[in-house]
Amino acid sequence: MHGTEEQTEEHAPAHEDHGPVRYGPPAPDPGLPVLPELAAVLAAAADRTRPEPPGGGAVLREAARGYWDRRGLHGTAGGIAAAPGAQPLLLALIGAHGGDVLMPRPCPAAWMPQARLLGRPAYHVPTPAECGGVPDPYALLETVRRIRAEGGRPKLLLLSVVDDPTATVAPPELVREACEAAVGEGLHIISDETWRDTVHRPRDTVLLSPAEMCPDDVTVVCDLSGALVPAAWPVAVARFPHTARAAVRHARTLDILTALGAHVAAPVAHAAAHALREPESVRDRIRRAAALQAEVAAGAHRAVLGSGALARPPQAGRHLYADLGPLRPRLAELGVTDSMELEEYLTDRLGAPAPGGHRFGDELGALRVRLGTGPLLGATPQQQTESLAAAKPLELAHVARALDGFAAVFGALR
């Protein structure tokens, strides 16, 4: 979808600003009710009055350590930091590092505002044709060279192997090349792995964390709302490398979280620790939710392609990223000429948030949009639960109706 067109776009270090964004787009809606067992755990901790310390208490940090240990990323609970959501955690992590920030184009909507808030120069690097989330290694090296030539200090690279917004999974060889390029240029890497447990077909998908190949140079971040807890219970965790330099950055991160008053609510910390331990009920929900989203996302993807628009096949998460550039003449007739107008048009007709690509670092003139699949799973908790339990969810009446309505919106643009 991006490929050659993206590679030829400007990627000189002059960073861009499409104007102020007054509010950020909501995270993709899971479209599923809270796991009852998790709700019971939260309710049982509702009378806790002692606040969690900055960075999270011992129980939460140990649960996060175990979560990563089961994924081959070994460490200690002392190398974990938690915060009430990904935004304050990322703000603290960027603040704990000096220098300029690089990130792929497109990227999660929260990344650029965090760098701007700290007054850090931030630069987008094009992604390759096959996926988003990880910069093209050659474009990364060229961007670093240009930043330095202009007197900048590139020090930090943000990336996401399982990507929001594109819903793609970067192939291991690309991750390896990009990380080797970054570390070779002295960049520290923050790997956002929020969506790693939402991969649609885990048996067919090879997922390589940058921390597996560059353990001393990668901090891993996970917003637990990706797969483990509801977005209404904000909590995110970071795993630092086991080095002396990382210990200093960990301490700085805790200092910033303290200054922000960014403490995880004690009942939420209790529920998050339970989810991070991954009892069978949690693992089963994760598996079933990913399988359901795979089916519905594939249906939505077919509808988008049927209109003549472009989109990479979604591989994870609960959304897809569409390029409506081929439909530009028809959209222009409807008064839609950029991604901001496209966002308004599709949000109104779909009845669900459809944030434009400008929110993710794409050019305002590009007609790209992130489309959520959660609203297609049902309008009530009963329908959503039925979707989760169905062997063939696309044959359920309420899912079929939702997909038909989704397809009709795009069919009208042919």
From TrEMBL:
It holds the Pfam family Aminotran_1_2. Residues 79-350 form the Aminotransferase class I/classII large domain. It comes from the Bacteria. Residues 1-34 are annotated as: Disordered. Residues 23-33 have a biased composition (Pro residues). Coiled coil: none annotated. Residues 9-20 have a biased composition (Basic and acidic residues). Keywords: Aminotransferase, Pyridoxal phosphate, Transferase. InterPro entries: Aminotransferase_I/II_large (IPR004839), AspAT/PAT-like (IPR050596), PyrdxlP-dep_Trfase (IPR015424), PyrdxlP-dep_Trfase_major (IPR015421), PyrdxlP-dep_Trfase_small (IPR015422). GO terms for molecular function: transaminase activity. Its cofactor is pyridoxal 5'-phosphate. Belongs to the class-I pyridoxal-phosphate-dependent aminotransferase family. This is Aminotransferase class I/II-fold pyridoxal phosphate-dependent enzyme.
